[in-house]
Amino acid sequence: MPVAEFKKKYGKRVAVLGGVDVDKLTRLKEEDLREYVRKILSDCMPEGGYALGSGNSIANYVPVENFLIMLEEGLKWRG
Hints:
Blueprint: H1 3-10, E1 16-17, H2 22-27, H3 30-44, E2 50-51, H4 64-76
Parallel strand pairs: 1-2
Helix pairs in contact: 3-4
């Protein structure tokens, strides 16, 4: 289930962690990845109860630069 859908369905009862698809984290170019992460943040951060992260463990094939892009977008997000 996409993280935004999960947040909408269960977010008032449980906190939500993650949801950034590892495949997208691996393959997307910088601008597309930034847009993807910002969309997740805008869908999941309102009303709290969300922590940005991947949908799985960060594998060794995920480019470090892409992981740092995800973190940077989380730090910049202001809603």
